[in-house]
Design brief:
With about 180 residues, the chain is of the alpha+beta class. It contains three helices and nine strands. The strands form two sheets. Strands 1-2-3-6-7 form a five-stranded antiparallel β-sheet. The chain has a four-stranded antiparallel β-sheet with strand order 4-5-8-9, with helices on one face. Strand 8 and strand 9 form a beta hairpin. It is globular, with a radius of gyration of 17 Å.
């Protein structure tokens, strides 16, 4: 069932909490995954974590295949991450944009590992290893942060790396640095 996505700052207390590990994949967890799936597929996002719908369990979903080059790229079906943990991550971090369904219209440039290997439980309770790179790695790390109460803004190194999007009279997006906002007020 589609759920309401909790928004920052109104629901910051919930969004900032550590999530409990899943003891076993049971009907409740499968129902949570179904709710997350219905909610994610109704949104313009590529990932969603359980605290974003008010459930403090270590469960998130990611959709793989996003690229900068092809905005119409076919994304994977949502992949559940249950008790995900980073097995290894490249030391090389890349600067790229981050955004969040819980913080609409705010975008920021963050540094994240370019490659990551993640261990997660499957819906059948077994272990799955995911080797991800580029935007797919970024999406997984972003959603895993949610499970620890971390928001993408916590990774912002400079106010110049934080943007909001306004639209001009023709509906075209205009990216405005937060540090330049005073000029627009």
């Amino acid at each position: 069932m589609r759920k309401r996505v909790l928004l920052y700052p109104e629901h910051e207390k919930t969004l900032r909490q550590m999530c409990e590990p899943v003891a076993r994949v049971d009907k409740k967890i499968l129902s949570l995954i179904e709710d997350l799936t219905d909610t994610l597929l109704s949104q313009p996002g590529v990932g969603l974590a359980s605290p974003q719908i008010g459930v403090l369990k270590q469960v998130a979903l990611i959709r793989l295949g996003q690229t900068h080059d092809d905005p119409d790229a076919k994304l994977s079906d949502p992949i559940p991450l249950i008790n995900p943990r980073v097995v290894s991550a490249s030391e090389e971090e890349v600067k790229d944009y981050d955004s969040c369904l819980s913080i609409p219209h705010l975008y920021g440039y963050t540094y994240r590992s370019q490659k990551v290997t993640i261990s997660t439980l499957t819906v059948k309770g077994g272990e799955q290893i995911l080797e991800l790179s580029d935007l797919d790695a970024r999406v997984a790390l972003h959603e895993m942060d949610h499970l620890k109460g971390v928001l993408f803004m916590d990774h912002i190194r400079s106010q110049d790396d934080l943007y909001i999007i306004k639209h001009d009279k023709n509906g075209n997006p205009i990216w405005i640095k937060m540090s330049d906002m005073a000029k627009f007020l």
